[in-house]
Structures are given as C-alpha cells and as structure tokens.
Predict the structure.
Amino acid sequence: MKRMTLRSCVAALACALGLAACGGGSSGSLIVGGSVSGLTQDGLVLQNNGGDDYTVTAYSTSFAFSKLIGYDSAYNVTIKTQPANTICTVTNGKGVSSAYNVTSIQVTCLTNNYFIGGTISGLGNATGLILANGADTYPVPAGTTSFRMPEKVSLGAPYGVAVFQQPAGKTCTVNNGSGRMAAADVTNIEVVCQ
C-alpha cells in the first residue's frame, strides 16, 4: 500500500515538473493584443515570438493574434513589415503572461506628411487673397506667383484648396485644388486671378 502511494506521488511530481517546464501547463487560452493608433496605410504586419504574423489593416484601432498563449508564457511583439511611407513602433511588446489576457501592447504609427501648393497667376499687386485647406489658411502677399500651404497633409488624407477670401478688385479660382495625398509634395495646384 505504501509503495502505491509513493509511486503515485512520484508520478504526480514528474507530471507537475513536466508541465512547469512547458510554461505552467496552460492550455493556451490567453490573448496577446493591444491598441493601434495613427495607422492610415495598409501593409503593417506584426509578429509575436518571431513566427505568429498578424496583418493590421489601415485605420484599425486594435489587434489580437489568433494564436493564444499559456500562463507564464513569453511574448515578444515586433514589427515584421512597415506600411509604405509610415513608421510604426511597439511599446510594452515584450513580457511574460500572467493569468490574464495581454492587452497593454501599443502600436503607434506616424505617416509621412507632405506639402501642398502650386502657382498663382494674375494676382499682381492686389491684396487680401486668402487660400484655405480646411482650417489651414494662407494669406497671400501681393505679387506672389507661387504658394505652399503652411501645414503638411498626411499620406492618404484628402485635401481641398479653395479661395477663402477674394483679393480686392479681382476674382480668383482654383484648378486641381482637391485630391488625396500621394507620397510626394503636391505642386500642381493653380490659382488664377482675373
């Protein structure tokens, strides 16, 4: 009887040690994920522990790997592929899981920004012309023949330059003033004054 009990205890101890060596013996029920901010382009691929890939689509605000991890398991979330013209970084991406889902990982993306501008014809010495792209305004000095709006526009974002205020004694119109920002400065907007 004592032999049976001793064998049972030894077997139970061996099982416990074997499970502990595998990361606590969990069944792999914990999510690894977190938040995403500033992502305006497709192409971001995250990776956990060098092998579990997750593709994050543009404008996503969160992510979660499909492969679950166990209790007391290591995770290491990194950027495998950056989106075009965007730099993403990972914060809180490395650690060891506890008894709860890992949701504190933060992915922050900064998209390249570009200027918009073009030419002005016919303004002469007239004063008072103000161009606007949304809330971004540019008071155009008299005699100006080219312009560049003060604030940059993010890649992929819409823009629309319009005449906010006409100059004294003239009427100005805008050609090629709207579109979606590509991966370069916009220089072909035309402001024509008569």
In short: The two ends are 109 Å apart (CA to CA).
